[in-house]
Design goal:
Elements lengths: L6 H21 L4 H13 L3 H10 L1 H6 L15 H4 L4
């Protein structure tokens, strides 16, 4: 009987970690050191060094994962007419 962590669960955790890393760095455009801190203290509760090691060891998985780009949302700008009504 094998004891210890399930390799399947570790693989799923690493994939989730990479997805969240991609989200924070590419979609939200947050700095790498802030991304590592968020992943460490708020989401996965692992040390920053461990998170860096997991990401570095699994960077090839990012290419194979289907990560759909988020749709661009066009922000409306106030029209010139609205600027005439400032106090």
């Amino acid at each position: 009987m094998v004891k210890g962590r399930s390799s399947n669960l570790i693989k799923l955790r690493n994939e989730a970690l990479l997805r969240r890393y991609y989200y924070w760095t590419e979609i939200r455009r947050i700095r790498f050191d802030d991304t590592y801190r968020i992943l460490s203290e708020e989401e996965f509760f692992l040390s920053i060094d461990r998170i860096r090691a997991i990401i570095h060891a699994n960077l090839g998985m990012l290419d194979n994962m289907e990560i759909k780009p988020s749709p661009r949302v066009r922000r409306s700008r106030p029209s010139r007419q609205l600027s005439l009504f400032k106090d």
